[in-house]
Amino acid sequence: MRKLRFALKFDSERHENLYRAGRISHYTGVSMTVHIAIPEPTGSDPVYNERSLPLYLTALEAAGATPVIVPLHERQDRVARVLAEVQGILLPGSRYDVDPQRFGEDPIPECGEPDPARTAVDELLLQDAFNLHKPILAICHGAQTLNVWRNGSLVQDLKTSVNHRPGREVVEAHPVRIRQGSRLASLLPPGEQDEPPVNSSHHQAIRLPGDNLLVSAISPEDGIIEGLELDSPEHFVLAVQWHPERTYTQSAFSRAIFAAFVESAKAWEPRRIEESGVPDDRSSSAGWDSVAPE
Q1: Is 245 a residue of the active site?
Q2: Is residue 71 assigned to a domain?
Q3: How many other β-carbons are positioned within 10 Å of the β-carbon of residue 74?
Q4: 147, 155, 213 from 225: Cα distances, Å
Q5: Domain range spanning residue 242?
């Protein structure tokens, strides 16, 4: 079996086991020439990493990409060398919370502990991706991290009529209403309903979208923001609060999300940093309420 290409020296046997655990059984016929950086989900919970990471790896590979796992305890210069060899960034979920101090709030008792190692690597990946306009797919915790990095804020602990963390075994937790005309809407397969059901495993949520981020999906019953995207047709940045990697084999919508991300990475070309700035104007929701309910 072909081994994944890893650009850093680290515990390759452990990561090979992760890959084997999540390997899909069919061949897609797609040449694997695109490399996508994905950080380890957590810096201190190997059990969570070994359970969750294979799903991302297999979804990326099925979509035609080669995942490159970024360890969370490497030096920044080594991580930078990895980033020089990848064409896209995937920020996965995590069992840890985003530190409220990063968006100017003190943590409430219901807020879980943060993961500083994951935060540090995420910020390096985001800086690289925004500097060079590399495509970004951010999922669950990754979506929240992206939003905070773009100067947005979060709800620290959800208390609504919708159960947003019924467990990873629940495939259809609640529907999401997708904004017409959004990048996310363009990924709905023909005949797919405008409010597709999604899974859900979060208790924090996006409150105020960050700079130049548009709301592309909400939970219709309680108004919680479920999707964001960058207001830039030239730069693929998509964030979803649910976990499309968990339903890759069952859901055409999930497959379309990964396919669009990988296709964008295939089309990416290096650019000079001075050409790659993104306006830092506060986001517009294009007619949607841009602040999540309390």
Answers
A1: yes
A2: yes
A3: 17
A4: 11, 10, 12
A5: 12-275
Whole-Å CA distances, 68 to 15, 83, 262, 284: 10, 9, 13, 34
Instruction: List the catalytic residue out of 40, 61, 229, 245.
Output: 245
- The pTM assigned to this predicted structure is 0.86
Structure tokens at 99: 């530190």
Tell me if 283 is assigned to some domain.
Answer: no
Q: Residue 31 belongs to a domain with what CATH number? A: 3.40.50.880
- Catalytic residue, from 140, 164, 226, 229: name it: 140
- Long-range CB contacts (< 8 A, 24+ apart) of 77-86? 78/8, 79/8, 79/121, 79/124, 80/124, 80/128, 81/7, 81/8, 82/7, 82/8, 82/37, 83/37, 83/124, 83/125, 83/128, 85/7, 85/35, 86/35, 86/36, 86/37, 86/134
Asked, for residue 51, whether it belongs to a domain, the answer is yes
56-106 pLDDT per residue, tens: 999 999 999 999 999 999 999 999 999 999 999 999 999 999 999 999 999
Count of the separate structural domains present in the chain: 1
Q: Is the dihedral of CA 162, 164, 170, 173 positive or negative?
A: positive
> Does the annotation mark 243 as catalytic?
yes
Within-domain flag for 294 = no
